[in-house]
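Think of the structure tokens as a kind of shorthand, similar to the way a musician reads notation: each symbol stands for something richer, in this case the local conformation of the backbone. In the example below we present two proteins back to back. Begin with the first one, reading the sequence and then the tokens, and try to describe in your own words what changes along the chain.
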Amino acid sequence: MTVSNDIYHKGNFADLRIKSFIILLISKLEGQTEEAKKIIQQDSSYNCLQGNNWNEESLWFTFFILDLYDFNQVRNLIDMFFNKYHAKNVDEYTMRLVSRILVKYLDLCFKQGKRNNEMDQAIKFLKLLPNKVEFGIYKILATYYEELLDDNFENAQLIADLLQDEDLDYENVSDK
């Protein structure tokens, strides 16, 4: 019996969606992506890429399961984010969640070798974030991916080296 099955059968959760989400994450960690994809397909509440109910919970779910969706499904998400959150009165926490999703999207695109126009939109969106410390890492990562798109690998490596500097501690900044 896998850990996810053990949790499913023995776990006592008040919210079944949270229970399914935990099982989904454990399936991903165990490398059982097909099982995780089945969970998404069977539970319509995980269909984060459709509908307009974008709250904090659905943004977090989207961040953690973005890589389980079909790549073509995810491309439309970038357009939706750009239209919904660009120059809107959105709180900073929500904007950071959206920014994390966009950075993950850019990373997925590069890992899969799929370049597209939505990547340019994601980079543009990230560069338009407010000039505040809380958004600095996202703006830097936008520049990093832009350099990769423009085949400026030397500049991209300089940015990567900066981000990997032990003294920078950027991970704590991005968690705020």
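Once you have a description of the first chain, move to the second and do the same.
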Amino acid sequence: MTDSVPAASAPPASSSVRVSDRFVAYVHQLCASTQARAALRRGLGLPVERCTYLHRYLVPWLRDHDDQHHGDVRRAYYAVASLIAARPRSARDTTPDQDASVSWYERPNLGASLGQAVAKGVLKENSAESALHLMARQSSDAIHPGLPALIRQLLAGGITIDWAVLLEDLAWWNRSRDRIATRWLESYFRTAANTTDPAPNDSAEENDR
């Protein structure tokens, strides 16, 4: 027996919930169907033009909720839908957290998630920092193909991803890359600060004077 495919409709609109949060909730709803989840997963790392199986689920949603004609916006939606659908089994039980009491800029972005990964030993400090600095120099076209492997590693290590924040950051990346990259780096160093100890280097430098 095959799963029935949910209709491509979004949760009721609410003025207190961001569009990105409503989209994430919608994709989680879709992923309750094995068939829909498999279709969405086929878009991992691909440009929209090669995401043939995703259109039936995402085109109606974008038509009603966001700018479907802006390439960066559309690709961000397709990318995040695919990433959510490709979550490892251990991460599928997590549901979107839409705590209105938390400021948008206090929610964890990708930099914060990488900082948590370093703090928990999921990623090495050098690897996480290198990934962030590399992305800070790249366009979204260069970032998208590498996201699936990075996100999979974070999720497998028990690191939470705020999908709505990632969605908006990717949608705006080419227009505000420096601002978003700075926010990622600041969040990373704030989160991973307790794992780094600059004192030995400072002492060595002092001894050389």
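Compare your description with these statements about the second chain. The mean pLDDT is 85.
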